[in-house]
Amino acid sequence: MRIPRHVAIIPDGNRRWAVREGKKKEEGYRDGISPGLEAFRYLKELGVEELTYYGFTADNVKRPAGQRVAFTKACVKAVEVLSGEDAELLVVGNAESKVFPDELKPYVTRKKFGAGGMKVNFLVNYSPEWDLGYDRNRGSLGAFLHSEQISRIDLLIRWGGRRRLSGFLPLQTVYSDIYVLDAYWPDFSAEQIREALDWYDRQDVTLGG
Description:
alpha/beta; about 30% helix
């Protein structure tokens, strides 16, 4: 099987899962932490070199305060959990914003834990405008990319059934193969990733050539 070098995950459907389970919407985020760790371990065992998670966007913070607190705590906990693994962690997002969690500021430069190995990136309070240095007043782009340490993505897997990128790393995904699962993120199973990898293995990768 052809294994992608870099896999990205959009872990969507937490709120819809919570409603289905008779819970408050904000409770769904907590149940997305364990799937993230399981996905990391499974992909690392397969030899994937880099993994990027979509934590939350600059637009997500417009949600009700209870939900904002919940998904922020979930992102902090997820990074803390992964810091106990052999990984090299990096958090990418607007750390100058007041909604960026203080607990994650040490990770805006990559940190090696244990034996290191797989690079793991978290997008937290991320927006493509911030990433590209877009100045709304001047209508121009900046001269650098905030996410420059994140490499081109080979396979992007999105849970929750939405067929859109939601602003996810516009430059790194220009040639990504995108696999969408209708299952909600808290219903994660390693078999879902296996299905995505089987699908990816059948794709004709030309990179425009």
